[in-house]
Amino acid sequence: MYSIYKSDLWPVQDKSKIQLYSLATPNGRKVSIALEELGLDYEAHKVNILDNTQFRDEFVEINPNSKIPTIIDPDGPGGEPIAIMESGAILIYLAEKTGKLLPDDPRLRNETLQWLFFQMASVGPMFGQFGHFYKYAGEKCDHPYPTERYTNEARRLLGVLEKRLTGRKFLMGDQYTIADIATFPWVGCLDWGYDAVDQLGLGEFKEVMRWHDACDSRDASQRGNKVCGFD
Questions:
Q1: Cα dihedral 170/171/176/177 (nearest 10)
Q2: Is 120 inside a domain boundary?
Q3: Which of its termini does the chain have fewer beta carbons within 10 Å around, N or C?
Q4: Low-confidence ranges of the chain (pLDDT < 70)
């Protein structure tokens, strides 16, 4: 049994449920939204990365990289518990476990995974770097280059999404998938997290904002957004 089950910081009430260790960042929201969308029973435990609790030994045991989110599924492969780190891997695992949010058709499945990894490799890291230099690093870095670089890259990526979403309700057309769940919280964070609506000219990306609002307004998204909040 994982030692985190004995943690005084994250007490487990029901070991039969999926245990979610997270915070309401864009990456954290991906998994809580997916759990809500899939209707899976889970317990949520707030991991406050602002006070470095993610470096506690019991958390490192289930996530060697000390990042959120992480889950423990007591009913993993073969009926044995499994701990999973990395939000993209968690989304794939949950989709495969339930048979939902990931198309069965091999071509559509492959395409969905491509857009999921587009978020993991590009949208998340680049939007995150933009937010760091635009909002948080002003006192440490007063050179304009980082903000200009990541502003331009964030806008480029928004343009990629704008083109993809033109004529499509969701990233995969009419089907809502883990690719949408992975990506829309990062688009929202440009507003609620970084206060960068004007800096990035988000109003220019009408299809992106239309899609974001459609994803964010879902009941499961509204519930998932509130899980492990900062307050």
A1: -160
A2: yes
A3: C
A4: none
